[in-house]
Amino acid sequence: MSTTTPINGASAATTSSSSNKTPTASEASDRFLKLLVTQMQNQDPLNPMDNAQVTSQMAQIQTVTGVEKLNTTMTSLGANLTQMQMLQGAGLVGHNVWLEGNSLATGNNGVTVGGYELTSAAANVRIDILDKAGKVVDTVTQSGMPAGRQGFTWTAPEGTNTSGMTFKVTATSGNTAVGSTAMMLDYVNAVSTQNGTLKLELQNKGSVAYSAVKAIS
């Protein structure tokens, strides 16, 4: 009668896990040095090892070890930078920020606020005020505006619901169009992090990246 010797499942799993485990740079370095010493002890005196080859192998293992240490350092640095961003972002809570967008911000007494950024000086700037349907309800004009970030205000007629209203900017210098980017004002309610990126929770636009902020007011 044949017999079968039972195999200890835990032992087998441990052996399998150990054989599949990827060695760290430190472990690989230790193995390399042990093999190198053994090889040097048993080398043929008449045909010694090539010093250049040994030096090259040692340099390679040192590079691997250095890269592992660098990765660890960078991971730690990234975590510290995220914490620093959180502290900086917390200081924005309760403040207004400027970012790209064409929504009108409503202030007191029906006064709304918006802005834009010009790529170069513009002789004339036309700002069309649009309702929710995109229909022009009024126009604000400005002249002699320099390059850079500019602002404007528009007072809505009494009883006007300004929620959801937007604006469109058209800038010209003579017959030449001037590049412009609409800017909106929004209120920071809170800050958060997502995948290592600092996010601002805005009252109107919702969650946006901290890098989207162009100015603070």
Sheet/helix structural class: alpha+beta
What oligomeric state do the depicted chains represent? single chain
In terms of DSSP E residues, the strand content is 35-45%
Count of runs of 4 or more consecutive helical residues: 3
Shape: elongated
Largest sheet: 8 strands, antiparallel
Computed over alpha carbons, the radius of gyration is 33 Å
Q: What is the straight-line distance between the termini?
A: 90 Å
**Helicity, as a percent range:** 25-40%
Give the secondary structure arrangement, pairings included.
Layout: H1 9-20, H2 25-41, H3 51-90, E1 96-100, E2 105-106, E3 111-118, E4 122-130, E5 136-145, E6 148-155, E7 166-173, E8 176-178, E9 180-194, E10 197-202, E11 206-209, E12 215-216
Antiparallel strand pairs: 1-9, 1-12, 2-3, 3-6, 3-9, 4-5, 4-7, 7-8, 9-10, 10-11
